[in-house]
């Protein structure tokens, strides 16, 4: 009993000292990250445990193309989107963007555009160090902050290091494992 009281007294003293030291900061001390540091931390938010395949920072790429009922293929960076004949009933200006992320990602405009027939998105993951692992990759439907909402039925070409899936609508997508 005496030992446990002595231990509690020591712990309480240490807690008081620690609290006192943390309260002795000067007014010049930085108490929050700078806006630039916070932005960098947000961009680095692709931990391997999130389910996304972590890559070297991807180069930014953007392409705009008019696509109509005849369909077409849009190439943007190392990725592509193939829209089949009959998927659209009228001409639509499509913007395909590969953001500069630490994951192989794609974002499309106009957001929410729906197809009568599924379009095929192909994402390249050749700049992802863990891409060579024999774990099959798939395409994930994500939020802008790269939180996974769902997975698409995907085909992984391990030889070419590309994964493809059918899209029914536009949003943001990324390579996941």
In short:
The protein is built from two helices and eleven strands, in the order H-H-E-E-E-E-E-E-E-E-E-E-E. With 177 residues, it is an alpha+beta fold. 26% of the residues are buried.
- Beginning-to-end CA distance, first to last residue: 54 Å
**What Rg is obtained from the alpha carbons, in whole angstroms?**
24 Å
Lateral strand order in the biggest sheet: 1-4-5-11-7-8
Provide the helix percentage: 10-25%
Give the overall pLDDT as a whole number.
80
Strand content: 35-45%
- Count of DSSP-assigned helices: 2
Summarize the helix and strand pattern as letters: HHEEEEEEEEEEE
Low-confidence stretches: 14-49
- Summarize the biggest pleated sheet: 6 strands, antiparallel
Shape: globular
β-strand number: 11
Helix/strand-derived category reads alpha+beta
Protein model, in words:
This protein has 177 residues and is α+β, with helices and mostly antiparallel strands. It is 17% helix and 37% strand. The chain is built from 2 helices and 11 strands, in the order H-H-E-E-E-E-E-E-E-E-E-E-E. The strands form 2 sheets. A 6-stranded antiparallel beta sheet has the order 1-4-5-11-7-8, with no helix packed on it. Strand 7 and strand 8 form a beta hairpin. The termini are far apart.
SSE map:
Blueprint: H1 2-22, H2 35-43, E1 61-67, E2 72-76, E3 79-83, E4 92-98, E5 105-109, E6 114-124, E7 138-142, E8 148-151, E9 154-157, E10 162-169, E11 172-176
Task: For the structure shown, list the relevant keywords.
177 residues; alpha+beta; six-stranded antiparallel sheet; five-stranded antiparallel sheet; 2 helices; 11 strands; 37% strand
């Amino acid at each position: 009993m005496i030992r446990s009281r002595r231990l509690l007294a020591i712990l309480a003293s240490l807690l008081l000292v620690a609290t006192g030291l943390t309260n002795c900061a000067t007014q010049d001390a930085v108490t929050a990250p700078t806006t630039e540091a916070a932005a960098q931390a947000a961009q680095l938010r692709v931990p391997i445990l999130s389910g996304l395949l972590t890559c070297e920072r991807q180069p930014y790429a953007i392409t705009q193309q008019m696509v109509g009922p005849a369909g077409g293929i849009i190439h943007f960076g190392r990725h592509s989107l193939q829209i089949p004949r009959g998927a659209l009933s009228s001409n639509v200006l499509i913007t395909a963007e590969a953001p500069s992320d630490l994951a192989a990602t794609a974002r499309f405009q106009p957001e929410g555009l729906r197809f009568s027939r599924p379009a095929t998105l192909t994402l390249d993951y050749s700049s992802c160090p863990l891409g060579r692992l024999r774990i099959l990759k798939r395409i994930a439907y994500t939020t802008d902050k790269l939180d996974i909402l769902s997975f698409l039925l995907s085909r992984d070409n391990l030889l070419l290091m590309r994964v493809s899936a059918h899209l029914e609508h536009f949003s943001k997508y990324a390579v996941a494992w």
